[in-house]
Amino acid sequence: MPEVRLIDENGSQIGVVPTHQALEIAASRGLDLVEVAANVRPPVCRIMDYGKYLYEQSKKDKAAKKKQHTVQLKEIRFRPKTEEHDYQFKLKHIRGFLTEGFKVKTAVVFRGRELVHKELGHKIIDRLTTDLTDIAEVESPSKLEGRNLSAMFQLKRK
Fold first, then answer.
1. Superfamily classification of domain 73-155
2. Which CATH class is domain 3-65?
3. Given this model, what pLDDT does residue 1 score?
4. CA distance 150 to 122
5. Strands 3-7 and 148-155, how do they pair?
6. Phi/psi at 145 (5° precision)
């Protein structure tokens, strides 16, 4: 690349200059020559303090990361033959997790020949859906993944 379009540290355009001259200008000012746009003719280069630029960029990234909110997932497992008391106990835990802001994945785990009776698992998931309608909505409906029938619940949006 014999020539580059040069932009100085203040953002004003110097013009099209030979590459060696652009490097000399940057060195005389004690700054770096950074290629900004390589795929245009002539390529665009900017005079800047590259170390300072990287530092400011990392600070911006950290600030953006602090502001983002991650939703965590809790999983509650059922069996096709889960008794009433166990069901109510787990339902209470699901309600607690949802009010704390978690998403909840419910899974009905089948073992051995229980997989023949998938309708029992669907009954449990449907019952959970109706019992949680006041507080939660179904994020993803029930689906069979191997030997697990699972559904995702999240807190209702206001």
1. Translation initiation factor 3 (IF-3), C-terminal domain (3.30.110.10)
2. alpha beta
3. 59
4. 9
5. unpaired
6. -120, 95
Strands ordered across the beta sheet of 44-48:
13-18, 3-7, 44-48, 32-37
State the Cα–Cα distance between residues 111 and 113, nearest whole angstrom.
6
The two tokens of residue 62 are: 């950290």
CA dihedral 102, 108, 110, 115 (to 10 degrees): -140
**C-beta separation of 136 from 156 below 8 A:** yes
Q: Which residues contact 137 (CB under 8 A, 6 or more apart)?
A: 153, 154, 155, 156, 157
143 backbone dihedrals φ, ψ, rounded to 5° = -145, 150
Domain chopping of the chain, boundaries? 3-65, 73-155
Could you report the per-residue pLDDT of 23-73, keeping only the tens digit for each? 999 999 999 999 998 899 899 999 999 999 999 999 999 998 888 877 789
Q: Is there a contact between 93 and 136 (Cβ–Cβ < 8 Å)?
A: no
